[in-house]
Structure formats: C-alpha cells, structure tokens
Model the fold of this input.
Amino acid sequence: MPTSFTPFTTQISIRFSDEDHARIVYFPRFFHFFHMAFEDFFASQGIPYREVLDVDKLGWPAVHAEADFERPVRFGDVIEVAMHIEKIGNSSASFVYRASRKGESVANGRITVACVDMDTMQKKTIPDKYRALFARILID
Done:
C-alpha cells in the first residue's frame, strides 16, 4: 500500500429507524451505509451524485455485494465508514468498506458496481473522469 494513501471516510449517525426489534442495526442497513459513503465520496470530490446520474447519465448498480458483521451497533451510535477501491476494471469497480465505532471495527463489506448508461441501462466503459476519480482511493 502506498504510504501516502488515505481511504475516503465519512461519519454516519445511527437513527432509530436503523434498528430492528433486537434494538441493533438491521444488517441490510449496512449496505445502505456503504452506499451513503459512496455518494459522499462523489460529493467530497466536487461532483454531487445527482449530477453523476442526471447530467453525466451514469449509473453504478451493484452487481456483487458481501459483508461481515462483527459487533452490534445501536441507535445513537456514530460510525465511521472508510472506503477504498481494490480494483478498477473496464466497466466495473470493486469498493471495500470498513465501518467502525470509536476505532473498533463493526462491519466490513465489498461491493462491485458496474458502470451503466442511465438511458439504456447497458454497461459502459468507465469514463476517464471517473477512472481518475476512483484512482484517488485505489489500493494496488
């Protein structure tokens, strides 16, 4: 890993609606949190996600998703979601997520997204603009 590499991170406050009857975060919510980090990454680079979808006409649907859950998270907690890319392909990219609370890992995930044209929903080569954006958080 390059010594200057820093993954993208964002903070997420856990809401009452994120919990299930056991009073812990319902596991699918972590995929939502990972997507929130994905959207926050674009915004942090000066490209609102709405612009990606509506102006550049690019979508990034998940084509593979997996996660491991390590510790319960509850309403009122604040988690940090760190994100980096482990692979950029011709028309897809694989993102790795680490959710932690006070430095302690609570969940990890990996999501591969495909680049698609929003009008046709056909796969598309990742444009250079986005390839360069993703390269900023790529770990070789």
